[in-house]
Please model this.
Amino acid sequence: MALPPIVSATLQSAVLAGTSNVLAQCLTSYQTDKPIAFDLVPIFQFVLYSFLNVPPNFLWQELLESSFPAYHVSPTRAAVKSAAANNEKKLDKEAKEGKLVEPKLNIKNTIIKLLLDQTVGAAVNTFLFSLFIHSIQAAMSRPLGAPLSNPDKSLQYLLSSGAIDYGKVDWDTVVANSKREFIPILQAGWKLWPFVSLINFAFIKSIEGRNLVASLAGVLWGIYMSLVAAQG
Model:
């Protein structure tokens, strides 16, 4: 039995989010010339964010597509030519062969969706990511030297009681940090996501397919965001 598209998209994105964080940790290890020791805590945080973030974004994409369809039905060139010549025989033949109409890209709707996705969608996603990552990092803080603070003990930490404690979160600081990095992250995203969105809206017809393309691009973005989160 096939999973609902929104569930498949969420699971797929969660796997890729975890992969991007693993790659980011490998990159950091290479840059610092230190032995790799995978820390499962940030991997868990990024995977958890995918489970929370993908479903509403899936519905957002569905809303954009239903409000501004990428394609509209248009007569084929052959049908227009036959109609102009009043050639009913050719029109009948083209009708039987399914060649009277064809899907045509709606450029106006594509531009509208691109603008909405890269303004409203990007702004909301950027701010919510910052709020999430700063708050969960504070809720799962592991000061150096504290018990279970080392990466090789991250699994033990995740399984320990009180691994996530939002009572430790200073929300004023979380919001301040999220505001501070909002514009830099948004500007960084505009170097990648408009092109991804344009490809999706112009060439990929299904929401599931668009999510796959976005998820693959998201591996690169996830590496960047993992490095940003590690510094925060």
Observations:
- Residues 74 and 102 are 5 Å apart (CA to CA).
- The beta strands are 71-75, 101-105.
- The mean pLDDT is 86.
